Amino acid sequence: MTSLYFPLDEYRLRWSRVEQEMKRRGIQAAVVWGRTSASFDRAGDIIYLTNYFSCTTGQGGDISSHKARTFCAAILQQGEVPELHADDPELRPELVSTNRVRNHPDPVESVIGALSGRGVSGPVAFAGSDFFPVKQWRRLVEANPDIEWEIHDDLVRIVRFIKTDRELDCFREGAEIINPAMDILMKRLIEGDSEAEAAGKAIGELVRRGGTYHKVVCAHGDTIQYTCSDPFTGYSTAAPSQGDMVRAFIIGPILQGYYFDPGRTAVVGNRPSSPQRALIEGCVSIVDNLCDAIRPGRTFFEIGKLGDRLVAELGSDSGGAAAQYPFYGHPNGLYFETPPYLSTVHDHLDAVVEANTVLGIEAFVAHDGVGTAGFEQNVIVGDNGVELLTTTPMLPF
Q1: 299: which DSSP letter?
Q2: Residue 74's CB: how many other CB atoms inside 10 A?
Q3: In this structure, are residues 32 and 45 in contact, taking their beta carbons and an 8 Å threshold?
Q4: Cα separation of 321 and 308, whole Å?
Q5: Mapping DSSP to helix (H, G, I), strand (E, B) and coil, where does residue 128 land?
Q6: What whole-number distance in Å separates Cα of residue 189 and Cα of residue 218?
Q7: Which of 2, 39, 63, 265 lies at a 20 to 30 A Cα distance from 130?
């Protein structure tokens, strides 16, 4: 029988950490929003607090019987168990961490009623302004005139940044799922399978092992400078030719919503030309050096400066994937927990590397007439360095 992956005391620890953050900010009450169903990008806060993920479909469309579909919320008040507001008609109680659940076909209306019933007024924190629909926001504001909404989008995310021991073990278990799939993906591409065939075999391995994914992105030949060959699927039905560079990433909530995004670049037939070898080995060296430089206490900006220097030394032409990702990594957790980025051009330049976090360390480098190489490793930051989670060989030749 399926049950909670994490024990209840893990969730109580999380609630306590969020409550401490609320106290630090002087917050008595908060409404934390999520968007789940077909989307993981804004599901993390609600998964973290309650383990809830909606089974409904549609991206927030309103009809007469249901409104704000796929949206959900947790009401937090100091000293109280979080109250989940879900748009599913009923939930399996063994799969959510809180015993305070309101099921409603209109989660915004449900939250409005709960706040009124609690007599909440004055300042209230709101987490989710970066994705919450304007029309739903207007309903919330108009229905609660005695509430002064304060935006705290990072209220839960800042707590999620440092992983618990159980979360780190979940990442380790997730690595045992994604690594064999990534091995298969690159092996099949190197042997000349079409992108779709290779992705299908990799996805099959993920699913067989109990994992899931967001996207498998592949590129080769004439599309190697782009993030992927087909933006809708991530992969095309075309097969690379002997000597083509191929690049692939598996991206997604591999286990319990925790994200991996390893990437590799190779050559079909495994016999790279001298320019291809120089580009691929140079990109691998950048990622390896960045991983070696990760230590608690170093700033993300410092690591970004190192990446800039290493790329300048190797040389990189502009455009394509190399321009799309002007950074060298990001925190991983319940999706990509950014900001901050390992970068010299993004905000949060004073962010500091901390132990018990998970990072994606990456680099893209382009040489005109050769292609674009891209690699990414997922690592756990320890007190004295990193623990490598993703083990597919970076240099198969």
Answers
A1: B
A2: 28
A3: yes
A4: 16
A5: coil
A6: 9
A7: 63
Contact 344, 304 (CB under 8 A): yes
When pLDDT is averaged across residues 44-69 and rounded to a whole number, the result is 84
Each residue of 306-321: b (16+ CB within 10 Å) or e? bbeebbeebebeeebb
For 295-331, the pLDDT digits (tens) are: 999 999 999 999 999 999 999 987 777 777 889 999 9
DSSP 332-389: EESEE--S--S-SSSS-TT-B--TT-EEEEEEEEEETTTEEEEEEEEEEEETTEEEE-
Its pTM stands at: 0.95
Write the CB contacts of 362 (distance below 8 Å, at least 6 apart in sequence): 261, 263, 287, 325, 327, 328, 329, 374, 375, 376, 377
Angle at 289 between CA 284 and CA 293, to 5 degrees: 150
Contact between residue 39 and residue 70 where contact means Cβ atoms under 8 Å apart: yes
- Other C-beta atoms closer than 10 Å to the C-beta of 55 total 12
Structure tokens at 189: 């591409």
Full DSSP string of 302-314 = HHHHHHHHHHHHH
Q: Give the mean pLDDT of the chain.
A: 94
And the tokens for 220?
């080769």
Length of the chain: 397
Distances from the Cα of 182 to the Cα of 62, 218, 232, 377, angstroms = 40, 12, 21, 12
350/371 Cα distance (integer angstroms): 34
What does the CA dihedral 92, 205, 286, 265 come to, rounded to 10 degrees?
-140
- Bridge partners (DSSP) of residue 362 are 376
What is the Cα–Cα distance from 276 to 279, expressed in whole angstroms?
A: 5
Residue 336 token pair = 């990509």
